[in-house]
Amino acid sequence: MSIVIHAEVPDRLWQQAQSLVEQGLASDMESLVAESLHRYIDSHQEVITERFIRSDIDWGLHGTSNDAVRKTHRILRNYVASEDNN
Fold first, then answer.
1. Burial code of 47-59, b = ≥16 C-beta within 10 A, e = fewer?
2. Do residues 55 and 72 lie in contact, with contact meaning Cβ atoms separated by under 8 Å?
3. Could you give the CA distance from residue 53 to residue 9 in angstroms, rounded to a whole number?
4. pLDDT tens string 26-59
5. pTM
6. pLDDT tens digits along 45-54
7. How does DSSP assign 28-86, residue by residue?
């Protein structure tokens, strides 16, 4: 499953990304963006996991969870599901 995204990026960043594709370091812009997102999520896995744990603790202690933590929980769950499909 793929999702199409629309994003604004600074000109210099776009030029650098195009240069990477032209140099053959990425097959195309789509794969470069997908790999970049994947690496960003991987590099923040500890923070995501901590928020997930805090959400579980908060729910266990108070039966509630704030919106930001719930959103992070959803993101982590989707990420884990996508990794299982790869």
1. ebeebbeebeeee
2. yes
3. 33
4. 999 999 999 999 999 889 888 888 888 887 787 7
5. 0.56
6. 888 888 888 8
7. SHHHHHHHHHHHHHHHTHHHHHHHHHHHHHHHHHHS---HHHHHHHHHHHHHHHHHHH-
